[in-house]
Structure formats: C-alpha cells, structure tokens
Amino acid sequence: MSGVWVFKNGVVRLVENPGAEVMEGGGRQASAVRRKVLVYSATNEVIGNYGVLESKLRSLGWERYYDDPELLQFHKRSTVHLISLPKDFTKFKSMHMYDIVVKNKNSFEVRDM
Q1: What is the 3-state secondary structure (H, E, C) of 22-82?
Q2: What is the per-residue burial (b if ≥16 Cβ within 10 Å, else e) of 85-102?
C-alpha cells in the first residue's frame, strides 16, 4: 500500500495520488506539483546543468570516470562512494539528488521549488 494518509473533517483516508485533488463533482484536478532542485549550500546556487555540478564536485575532490558512455560517474579517492547519473540532465531525478547529498554532507541540499 503506497500513498499519503490524509486527515480531513474527522476522517482519515489513504490518498494514492497525493498530487491530485478531488473536485466537488468527483473528478480529479491536477494540483501544482513541487519540483525538487539540488542546491549547492556554500553559495545557495541551484544546480541547473551537469557542467555546474561537475565543477562543484571537482572542487570537493570528486573525479570523473569515463567507463560507461550512458552515465556520468564520479568517484572520490578517499572513499568507496560512486555517484552515477544519467547522461541526459532531463532524466536527473530527486533520487540522484539525494545520492549526491548523502555522499557530500553539508555541501548540497534538495529543496522544493
């Protein structure tokens, strides 16, 4: 069972698609869905492309791997961590952002836009 539990008018119910709201007629209307963005904490800069991200990661000691042509991969010599990202930035999702945040504590954060 996945979704969000909603408490409304004294009733608790499971909403499977929290990004949609029920209208009075029973239909569904898409609500404004918040988009996630990766932010470089030191400068409060939103990462808008891989060029900017790569320069920030390099400054933190990450090296680029060129083994897989389908992925952008970064490795930090002092750790066992590997960051693997889709080659196309439009496929850069929140799971990739959180992976970067976990492996770079205090350097990046994910925010709702």
Answers
A1: ECCCCCEEECCCCCEEEEECCCCEECCCHHHHHHHHHHCCEEEECCCCCEEEEEECCCCCE
A2: beeeeeebeeebbebbbe
How is residue 59 written in tokens? 């400054």
- What's the pTM? 0.70
Contact 53, 38 (CB under 8 A): yes
Instruction: Enter the DSSP assignment of 89.
Output: G
Q: CB under 8 Å to 102, separation ≥6 — which residues?
A: none
CA 101 – CA 1 distance, rounded (Å):
28
- The token pair at 24 is 């009075």
The residues with which 83 forms a beta bridge, in sequence order, are: 74
What confidence category does residue 23 fall into, taking pLDDT thresholds of 50, 70 and 90? Answer: very low
User: Among 30, 49, 27, 32, which residue's Cα sits nearest to residue 40?
Assistant: 49
Residue 33 clears pLDDT 80, i.e. is over it: no
